[in-house]
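Q: My labmate handed me this sequence with no annotations at all. I'd like to see what the chain might look like in three dimensions before we decide whether it's worth expressing. Could you predict it?
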Amino acid sequence: MKQVMTLYGLVLAAAGMAVAALGLEQALLLAYGAIALMALMISATFLWLWQVRATPLALGMSLSWAGSGLTIGWWWAMQIAQSPVWGMEAAMLFLFLSLLIAGAVLHFSVIQGSFGLSGLTFLWPVLGALLVSFGVLLLL
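A: Here is what I predict for the chain of 140 residues:
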């Protein structure tokens, strides 16, 4: 855990230096672009691991990372283009968010075995997340 906290501290310090050198908006664009690209590379790695049958979680990880990378990448591209998207173009985000959600569902499906569960019980966390999200929307 010490190594993780050290790495986190170094990354946070680098982010602070980027803000000081580039300004907040540009530093955020730099970070979002970098994480979008890293997420897609990680997704490709997990897709390869799934292909060679290294771990049953690999496909879920690949979809999750691809969905994250594409969702963040979409936001990054829109910010660079200075084009906020509110119309039908924004609905395209569901192509990417659906990858991310499918990856999460696959994760719950595989992980449920670790808890000795079977069947569709893995859907409870998915339904719980949807209900909490819906509840927040109702409060707004």
